[in-house]
Every structure is written in C-alpha cells, then in structure tokens.
Design brief:
mainly alpha; Rossmann fold; 11 strands; 9% strand; elongated
Length: 475
C-alpha cells in the first residue's frame, strides 16, 4: 500500500509554499487508495510556536485534506498504529536505530567542540574548499574514545560516510549522483541527545512504513545523506519525488519570511478551499487534459507524479482569484449560502432570510471570494447618501408607467416580467432606455444585479417609494 506523509514543523502558520506539499501528497495517496500520514516535526523546541500545531490541523481540515494517521489534535484522538506522530515523543525509535548503526560500525562519537567546528568552517571558507567535517574524531582509537566518554566529555554521534558515490533516484530529477567526498561525515545525534533532521526523518519514515516521499526540491541536497542512512540500516529507500520551488512575484523563494500568505489568511479572506487545492496542485504538476479549473475528484483521477516538472514556478495571485471565482460559480446554492453566511452584515445588507437565496443566486457570478458577498449585496440598495436621480424627458414616462404597473403586479418572477413588458409596450422603451432609468431610481447606479431579483429583494414598498421620490424631484 502507498503510504505518504506531510511533516510540517509547528514554527508558525501553514502557508501556501508548504501546503502545496500536503495537497500533492494527499491527491496522489487518494488516487491509489493509500494512507496519508500527518507527522509533526517539532524537535526544534526553541522555534516552536504555541498553537501552531492546532492551526496546521485546522488549515488541513479546512482544505479538506483528511489524514489517515496522525496526532490527536483539537480534541480528536491520535489515530493510526505507527505513532506517536510528534518527533519529540519518538526518542525510543531514534535510540533503537542509533544502536543498529553502532552495531554496523556506521557511526562514531565526535567530541569536537562548537569552537573547533567553527574554526574548521572559517578555514574552509578562507581556502574556498567544501564545508564538510574534517574527520578529526573519525580516527580516534576505541580506547581513547572510551576514556573521553568515561571522563564525561560531551559527544555527538557522526555517520561514517563510505568512500563511494551516492546515487539518488528521483521521479522528477532522474538519477542524481554525488561523490562521497562532497558530503563529509554528518551528525545523526547531537550531544544533547536530540536527533538531527536527516536521521529523524529516515527513522520516522522507516517506522511509519512510508513508501513515497514527495517534497520540495530544497530537500534534494539532504537526500544523499538519507539514502546512506537507509543503506546502513539495510532498508530500501522510499520513492523520492522532489517538486520545483515556488517563487514570489519578485522571483525569490516563497516562504514565511518573504511574505507568503498563510492558509488561515486565505480562509479569512473568503477564498474557496477547492480553489486553493486546485491551484496549489498546479504549482507542482500539470493536468494531461490541459484544463485549469479542476474539482477535487478530477484532480484525484488525473494526478500523476510522472508529470511533475523541474522548472521553478511563480505564484500568481490573480490566477488563484480566477479559480476561486470559478469554483464559487459551480457551488450548489445551499452550500454557497452556508459559505457566505459568516461574511454577511445584516446592518449593511438588510435582506429578509427568505429572499437571501434569490439575492445570492443573482450575484454569484460577481464573487471572487465569499467575502465579496457584502459589496455584491450592497448593490441591491441605494447608498445612504444616494439622492433621487436627475431624469431626462424620456425617463419620466418610464418611471411613471413602472410605478403604476408594479403597484398592482404580483411579485413572483413571471408577474414582474409581465409588468416590465407592459411598461415597455406603453412607453416604447426597450433595453437600456427601459432599465437604466429604473435602476438609477432604485439603486442610484446605472449597473447592478439582474433586474427581477433586484425588485424581489427590495420589495414592493421600497420600490414604489424610490419611484415616487424620483418622480417628485424637480429636474
């Protein structure tokens, strides 16, 4: 069974740059009937932000990216048989796999101090040589190592990189070959007992049965180290697929530090969650159909890791807004009503509950986000400072005839259409000549919502009042 994972760090809000990894993993896993794992990589305790984990869970839930295994969050119990799902709770797994590496002779204690390592780093920078560990502790004898440890000298555990080429097979980038000399022995467990990133993710992916690692290309440089760890542990590496970097409009990497918008902000701004899933998937992959507006079921059906590109992509806010508008257009009306409800202001848009479906249906094609509903519904009513319009000679007969026709008309759609047809017949006005003076009288604007819904939402009393006020004005 295919098993993938999304492994964010709770160091802040989930933003579009890392949410797209959740989207791609989720779509791919759902297509193949696999299991999608949420894992929290929280070992960097100093950078962890209180509430960030809960925010990540909320954002994934809003996006509709349900996980099959993961930590208990927002009161839900932990689910899955491969937990715990927070790295800070998995110390026993790291100790167990460190012992396996020790038994295989793949690691050794390193007593180098921070000052010594910084001195090595500065020398490499001055000489223009690769930044890698020089191997000072690699050649220590077993006796000297034991003596230092017995004396209480702090030490980390380093992986002994073999003297051979490392081959990484990647679905997007093909075969990536790295000479061992470019890597250098790397730390797997720090002197404080904390695992390093490369060691922790390998142990976690092994013990969680992860079969496919789909992540950003920024991690490709870590992958040779991880492949070496898999080999030393006698485990076949998972399938790797690294996706291109997302750039901001300034063509710099999109990140938390460079103004990437958080998923929570998009939610607050009223974007359709399916539009975000749609757009974020297209930042990593292209549909074989060439379509851009794709529903969740279509994305699951069409997604393929074989279609991941390698060229960096630029985040396009205008395209996201376009997709949000298209997904809103496709929504069943009851779902749309529920989605816009949090953004309604009854004081600014005094629409009776039974007429709200009529009003929302009339303006749905004008919505880019759910938050646009306020401005769209405001167009049904004149502004607070709107004065009756100045009428030309041709407009007054239209308004007078409309007032008489609407005074006795029914207020259903068919009856209102008949009344307006009668006004046109009596006055000879058609098209713009008929509707523009009426719209100006009712709303103070020449353009707005479809006319029949406008009449229904305003109601007979307000319509007749506005027509009377417009006719009473001296021009």
């Amino acid at each position: 069974m295919v098993r993938t994972r999304f492994a964010p760090s709770p160091t802040g809000a989930l933003h579009v740059g890392n949410a797209r990894m959740a989207v791609l993993n989720w779509l791919f896993t759902r297509k193949l009937g696999g299991q999608f794992i949420l894992r929290i990589e929280d070992t960097d305790r100093e950078r962890n932000v209180p509430g960030a984990e809960e925010g990540i869970c909320d954002d994934l839930s809003w996006l509709g990216l349900d996980w099959d295994e993961g930590p208990g969050c927002r009161g839900y119990p932990e689910r899955g048989s491969h937990g715990p799902y927070r790295q800070t709770e998995r110390a026993e797994y790291y100790r167990e796999h460190l012992e396996r590496l020790r038994a295989a002779g793949a690691v050794y204690p390193c007593f180098c101090s921070d000052a010594q390592l910084e001195e090595e780093r500065q020398s490499a920078l001055e000489e223009g040589t690769p930044l890698r560990y020089g191997g000072r502790c690699r050649a220590l004898s077993a006796a000297e190592t034991a003596a230092r440890a017995a004396a209480g000298a702090p030490f980390a555990w380093r992986f002994r990189v073999p003297d051979r080429e490392v081959l990484v097979r990647d679905l997007a980038y093909g075969e990536v070959r790295v000479p061992a000399g470019e890597i250098g022995d790397f730390i797997v467990l720090r002197s404080d007992g904390q695992p390093t990133y490369n060691f922790a993710v390998v142990v976690d992916d092994i013990t969680m049965g992860v079969t496919h690692v789909v992540r950003g290309v920024g991690h490709l440089s870590n992958t040779p180290r991880q492949v070496l760890l898999y080999q030393a542990l006698g485990i076949e590496p998972p399938v790797f697929a690294h996706v291109p970097t997302v750039l901001g409009p300034d063509r710099q990497k999109l990140s938390k530090r460079r103004g990437a918008t958080s998923i929570a902000e998009y939610r607050a701004q009223g974007y359709h969650p399916d539009a975000l899933v749609n757009y974020l998937s297209l930042l990593s992959w292209s549909s074989p159909s060439g379509e851009e507006v794709l529903g969740r079921a279509q994305l699951i059906e069409q997604v393929s890791l074989d279609r991941i590109g390698v060229a960096d992509v630029v985040f396009d806010g205008a395209k996201l807004r376009f997709l949000s508008a298209r997904h809103i257009e496709r929504m069943p009306l009851p779902e749309l009503l529920a989605a816009v409800e949090p953004f309604l202001d009854p004081d600014r848009q005094p629409i009776a509950p039974d007429l709200l479906p009529v009003a929302v249906a009339a303006v749905r094609t004008h919505l880019t986000t759910f938050a646009d509903i306020g401005a769209a519904l405001s167009a049904f009513f004149p502004g607070p400072d709107a004065a009756p319009p100045v009428l030309d000679a041709a407009a007054r007969p239209v308004l007078a005839a409309a007032r008489e026709a609407l005074r006795s008309s029914g207020w259903e759609e068919e009856a209102l259409q008949a009344a307006l047809k009668q006004v046109g017949t009596e006055t000879g006005a058609r098209g713009r000549a008929l509707y523009e003076p009426l719209r100006l009288a009712l709303t103070g604007a020449a353009h707005g919502p479809p006319f029949i819904p406008l009449l229904q939402v305003q109601g007979r009393e307000l319509v007749l009042q506005r027509l009377r006020e417009a006719l009473a004005r001296e021009n």
